[in-house]
Structures are given as structure tokens and as C-alpha cells.
Write a structure and sequence with these properties.
Layout (H helix, E strand, L loop, with lengths): L1 H15 L4 E7 L1 H4 L8 E7 L6 E7 L2 E9 H10 L11 E4 L4 H14 L2 H19 L7 H12 L13
Length: 167
């Protein structure tokens, strides 16, 4: 949709002016090429200067925007400690990455999942269910249950810590 692309372009231009922005990713239906006229815009800004992960809800031209601000250190921490929870990053589309930070991280994430087919199968199934539930109007916050289940199944401790979301 042209209006969605206009919003993405405007956000990229705005945030890439900030020297602390090291990468910008598109996720959700736009990244998959499955957007509809009423689809929201899901953007993730990776920053060196922010300390806490934040979700900002915005609206522009009548389109809802989920703007995720993610500290670089948090992303590195997530991948180093919880790689089995990082599958969804493979579905993100990198739209700004001047120093190849996300490109390199995604390459490492892909290598991890190439060696762990059980985890890939788990996430493909969960993402299919989440997508179906979202289409039926169910709250996507239920996705946290999938992260809990993955942590129990694939972590060394085999228990839920939710430390993945700590920062």
C-alpha cells in the first residue's frame, strides 16, 4: 500500500537523522508483503542511546503505527542468552543498517536456527497460530505464552524466567 510505504519512508528519514540509531527494521504484515488497507505499520528502531525497550503507539494518515525502540545492548543480550527466542527476527526486513549491525546479527541468528530444526518447527507452528488468532481478532499479547513455552522447552533451566524481556 502506498500510504504504508510513505509512513515507513517518513519514519526512516526521521530516525536515521539521530546518530544513535544504528538500525531500523520493518516487521509484521508489511515486512512479509501481506499488508491490507487496514494493516498497521510495525517498525523497530535499534538505538545505542536508549536504556529501556519501549513500544510507542502512534497514528498517521489514519494508519496505526507500532514503533518499537530497542537498546542495542538489549538485542545483543537477547541473542546471546536466549537465541531460541529470536526466531521472529528472521522475518524482519532491514530497512536501514549503515554499519551492518542487523545484517550480521541476523546472519548469526540464521546460523543458530539452521542447526536447531526442532526450534524452527516450534516457532513456525506458533507463528502460524498467532497469525490465525490475530486474524480472528484475538489479543496478540497471548504471544507471551509462546515465549514462556519456548523457554521451558529449550532453555538449560527448563523454566520460565521472562528475563528475555528484562531490559
Amino acid at each position: 500500500m502506498k500510504i504504508h510505504q510513505k509512513i515507513v519512508n517518513e519514519l526512516v528519514e526521521k530516525y536515521k537523522k539521530d546518530k544513535s540509531t544504528i538500525a531500523i527494521n520493518l516487521f509484521g504484515s508489511l515486512a512479509r508483503g501481506e499488508e491490507r488497507p487496514n494493516s498497521d505499520v510495525d517498525i523497530e528502531i535499534i538505538s545505542e542511546n536508549v536504556r529501556k525497550w519501549r513500544l510507542l503507539k502512534k497514528k498517521k494518515y489514519g494508519i496505526e503505527i507500532d514503533l518499537v525502540i530497542c537498546p542495542k545492548e538489549h538485542l545483543i543480550y537477547q541473542f546471546e542468552k536466549y537465541p531460541y527466542l529470536c526466531y521472529d527476527y528472521l522475518n524482519e526486513k532491514i530497512i536501514y543498517d549503515p554499519k551492518d549491525f542487523m545484517k550480521n546479527l541476523k546472519r548469526n541468528i540464521k546460523k543458530y536456527f539452521d542447526k536447531n530444526s526442532k526450534i524452527v518447527k516450534f516457532w513456525k507452528n506458533k507463528l502460524k497460530i498467532m497469525k490465525k488468532n490475530k486474524a480472528m481478532g484475538q489479543d496478540p499479547k497471548d504471544a507471551i505464552k509462546s515465549y514462556d513455552e519456548a523457554e521451558i522447552k529449550f532453555s538449560r533451566e527448563h523454566k520460565v524466567t521472562r528475563d528475555y524481556f528484562r531490559k
